[in-house]
Design a protein that fits this description.
heterodimer; A: 374 residues; mainly alpha; Cytochrome Bc1 Complex, Chain D, domain 2; two-stranded antiparallel sheet; two-stranded antiparallel ribbon; B: 390 residues; 2 strands; 1% strand
């Protein structure tokens, strides 16, 4: 017993010293429950990318032949014109396979701690995220090996590929996904008022937005989860977001949801009737209904909101939090005045920059290859 | 003392074993000699054409009317594919002889297949399926087709969950298999059971009526063709037994499909197929012909070999050969008459036959008599709908 207590104290000290040594910068997640000073921050400097990879990745991002039946490209659900999401409450998914969660924007994806609403993929591994999108039956349902042979049939792609990987290199699964990931890394917020403000441009955000920021950090308590440069703590929380009834009322979506639970190895998946969130991944009862904290950047372009798109506007979102969330929520009612809510919206909008656009490339055609020279 | 006795005993035993061995060797030599003599007199016994026996049914997938009825619906159901439209029937279409009518099968949207879509008529009788014999039962053929990226491109767990959201299927699976929720393996069993009902009706097959004693069932031309089949044309060498297939593998030098030269989509599939067969990089890089059985055995002697198909129901299943390069039965007979094509490992059984034009006609007449008088058409079943689960 004594030993246990001692061990805990040691860990406590270790955490405390980490907090001290990190000197007020973004803190390790597990330290949040200690007396940690949470902050919000400007986006860090972009990291350089491999330009040739990103350029080929741009082409592949828009190429429908990355999907099984050529019905969709990455851009179908991550459409630049819709904030790199799809503007729908629930994502479309593959042909005859409607999906059961909201397609998030991929702007600033390079900074995410985890991918997917249930956090099933590691944010440090963007290539694996791309592989999941391309090969998963409910997204693009393509056989990765078939896709690599398709790329080989496009001389322009082979040329770009060999410029990156060497003269005799072939398009090849894992690299192919990393190429697309390299492009995704270039999709970043641009000219964000809040970031300019943090860097010293006092006039970059309105007085109302500044009041919103005060509420964000204080009374509204948004910052307890939406913190750091990404405005996400990288953790999972239960807010009691209303169920999106379209999931269960549309068998195509319900099929995808239960099938996802079944392939995740979740116990008793046939009896699930609501979205259990990260529980399907952790199998921990305490994680039922918990979802990954999303970024608040670029919200202006990415309505509707929440993991199932049930809140249509930022005002709806703030009302939801003001009530203390929904059924089973870990939140408390906030008691915000109408002016408070307006100020919060003004601040949230200051987290969105200029529209992030790229030029959509022309899709190169397949060409014949010399026979017997594969 | 004891040891000595044991030794003596052993010696006696080994002596008598030696004596038996000598006698056996002598007997074997005699048998071999007899066989050699017999061979020079008459060819080794080849199973003759004849009526198909009852359909073989594996002990772990017994037939029942309900299972066949369920399997029929599943055979038609596009939800057992990736995009909801590529059910079994889309490449095995009753009106096209239960094939798809193309030289090379159409394949999944966004792809082209690489081989001819075979009829499923009488597939119940094969002990190995696909052109390279890669699976050994209908129960394992279904998944290869439904889940293969250039065929059905279905994900098994998705297809299974789709079945579970179709209440009529849930009830039927429960009745047939006794489980609370449908499973894809059971779905494939039901489809196999249905396929075991898609067989030639001997009453409608002229040759079968002839074999049953109705000598008028074959025209005199077809009867002459039958004699050629068993004699000068030597078709019986491989197309033998009731199925008219020995289910063995041969290289014939069938012309190469131009699709692999002229169509990007066919080139993609060809490379993809070769890539995933586990061949060496060199084979993948150089591949310009379909290696057939080699992909399974990796034995160079098997390059270009394909499993002998049945000749039943040919009338409805043009074009012919593993890549559909021969459009008509006349083309096929001419091909054999020339002694086949040119290929590594070509079977020595193929020699120029010296058939006259009249012989060719007679042979074709006979081949057609192996097909039913009318095609076997099954009406599209009504498929049940999805419903919201309680």
């Amino acid at each position: 017993m004594n030993t246990l207590i001692t061990a805990r104290q040691v860990i406590g000290f270790a955490v405390a010293s980490l907090v001290l040594s990190s000197g007020g910068v973004i803190l390790p997640l597990y330290a949040a429950e200690r007396s940690v000073v949470l902050e919000i921050a400007a986006l860090p400097q972009s990291k350089p990318v491999n330009k040739d990879m990103a350029e080929l990745g741009r082409h592949l991002f828009f190429d429908v032949r990355i999907s099984g039946d050529w019905s969709r490209s990455c851009a179908s659900c991550h459409n630049p014109a819709k904030g790199w999401a799809d503007g729908e409450a629930l994502s479309q998914g593959y042909t005859a396979t409607d999906y059961f969660r909201n397609a998030p924007s991929i702007i600033n994806a390079r900074l995410r701690e985890r991918f997917m609403w249930d956090g099933r993929l590691d944010g440090a591994d963007l290539g694996t995220l791309v592989r999941d999108m391309v090969t998963e039956a409910h997204f693009m349902n393509a056989d990765g090996r078939l896709v690599q042979e398709r790329l080989k049939q496009v001389p322009e792609y082979v040329e770009m590929w060999q410029k990156i990987f060497g003269k005799s290199a072939d398009p090849y699964g894992p690299r192919m996904f990393n190429v697309i990931a390299e492009f995704v890394k270039t999709i970043e917020s641009k000219n964000v008022p809040f970031d300019r403000f943090v860097k010293g441009d006092e006039g970059a955000i309105s007085a109302q937005a500044k009041e919103g920021m005060r509420l964000f950090k204080g009374k509204a308590n948004c910052m307890s989860c939406h913190n750091g440069a990404t405005f996400s703590d990288g953790k999972f929380h239960r807010l009691g977001v209303p169920e999106n009834l379209d999931i269960w009322n549309n068998p195509l979506r319900a099929i995808t949801m239960l099938r996802h639970y079944s392939t995740s190895g979740m116990p008793n998946y046939m009896n699930a009737r609501t979205d259990v969130g990260s529980h399907a991944i952790t199998k921990n009862e305490r994680d039922k209904g918990k979802f990954f904290t999303p970024t608040l950047r670029e919200l202006k372009y990415t309505a509707p909101y929440m993991h199932n798109g049930t809140l249509k506007t930022l005002e709806d979102v703030i009302e939801f939090y003001d009530r203390g969330g929904g059924k089973g929520s870990q939140l408390k009612a906030l008691g915000l005045s109408p002016e408070d809510k307006k100020a919060l919206v003004a601040f949230l909008l200051a987290l969105s920059g200029d529209p992030v656009t790229v030029e959509q490339p022309k899709q190169f055609d397949f060409q014949l290859r010399s026979f017997g020279k594969n | 003392m004891i040891l000595n006795r044991t030794l003596a005993g052993l010696l006696a035993v080994s002596l008598s074993v030696a004596a038996i061995a000598v006698a056996t060797t002598a007997a074997a030599a005699t048998v071999q000699k007899d066989a050699k003599q017999a061979k020079s007199v008459r060819p080794p016994a080849i199973p003759q054409l004849g009526l198909l026996p009852p359909v073989p049914v594996p002990a772990d997938n017994p037939m029942s009317a309900e299972k066949v009825e369920l399997g029929k619906k599943l055979f038609w159901d596009g939800r057992l594919s990736g995009n909801g439209t590529m059910g079994c029937v889309s490449c095995h279409f009753p009106q096209l002889g239960w094939g798809d009518g193309g030289a090379i099968s159409r394949g999944y949207p966004g792809t082209k297949h690489w081989r001819n879509s075979q009829t499923i008529l009488n597939s119940a009788y094969y002990n190995k399926l696909f052109w390279e014999g890669s699976v050994t039962s209908l129960e394992s053929q279904g998944p290869s087709a439904a889940e293969g990226a250039v065929a059905g491109n279905g994900d098994r767990s998705v297809m299974e969950m789709r079945l579970r959201f179709i209440p009529e299927y849930v009830a039927e699976f429960k009745k047939v298999f006794g489980t609370e929720w449908p499973r894809m393996t059971q779905g494939y069993q039901a489809i196999a059971a249905f396929q075991r009902t898609i067989v030639s009706d001997p009453k409608k097959v002229p040759f079968d009526r002839y074999a049953s004693g109705d000598k008028a069932a074959l025209s005199s031309s077809a009867q002459r063709g039958f004699a050629l089949y068993n004699g000068k044309a030597n078709c019986i060498q491989c197309h033998n037994g009731p199925l008219a297939s020995d289910q063995k593998f041969y290289s014939l030098g069938v012309p190469h499909s131009e699709a692999f030269r002229n169509e990007p989509l066919a080139q993609i599939t060809f490379r993809w197929e070769v890539y995933q067969k586990g061949v060496s990089e060199k084979i993948y890089r150089d591949a310009d012909i379909d290696h057939g059985l080699y992909y399974i055995t990796k034995n160079p002697k098997d390059i270009g070999k394909f499993r002998t198909p049945s000749l039943r129901e040919l009338k409805y299943t043009a074009p012919y050969m593993h890549n559909g390069t021969l459009a008509t039965l006349e083309d096929v007979v001419h091909f054999y008459n020339r002694g086949g094509g040119d290929a590594p490992n070509k079977s020595p059984l193929l020699k120029a036959l010296g058939l006259s034009d009249a012989d060719v006609k007679d042979l074709v007449a006979f081949l057609e008599s192996l097909s039913m008088d009318e095609p076997l058409i099954v009406k599209d079943p009504k498929l049940p709908d999805y419903a919201v689960m309680k």
